[in-house]
Amino acid sequence: MLRDVVFERGSLANLRALKADWRRVRVDGTRATGLELGESHLVDVAFEAAKLDFSSFRNARLERVVFRDCRLDEADFGGATLEEVTFERSPLVRGSFAGAKVKDVELRGCDLEDLVGADGLRGVRLPVHDALANVVTIAAAAGIRLMDE
Questions:
Q1: pTM for the complete prediction?
Q2: Cβ contacts of residue 144 below 8 Å, gap of 6+?
Q3: What separation in angstroms does the CA of 101 have from each of 69, 105, 140?
Q4: How many C-beta neighbours within 10 Å does residue 148 have?
Q5: pLDDT (tens digit per residue) in 23-80
Q6: Residue 136: beta bridge partners?
Q7: What is the structure's pLDDT at 143?
Q8: Is the dihedral of CA 29, 32, 38, 39 positive or negative?
């Protein structure tokens, strides 16, 4: 259990903390490649400028969580429940949201290229220019096949 903790410019790389309970935690400028927080409960957590590629939040519950300026390539949110979660300028290339449940989730400036389980993002909010930049992923999630002219 972590309460009222700040991680700054350190390393949480490959930390395995399944079923963890984090409340009021800030991870700032930290290398956290391969971080495993599967089945965890995160409340009022902020990840800022963190390297979170290959991280796992599988089947976790995230409430009031912010990912800002993070690397989230190949991050796994499969089966997770996300409520009041914001992703800002955080690439999710080849990430997974398969089976995720979202409520009040916002994506701003995020690359969703080759996202797995994009239908798990049904109901998210994103600016029009972000939707246009990610139209291939969004179309695939909706079952639309795009044609080359």
A1: 0.93
A2: none
A3: 23, 10, 18
A4: 3
A5: 999 999 999 999 999 999 999 999 999 999 999 999 999 999 999 999 999 999 999 9
A6: none
A7: 80
A8: negative
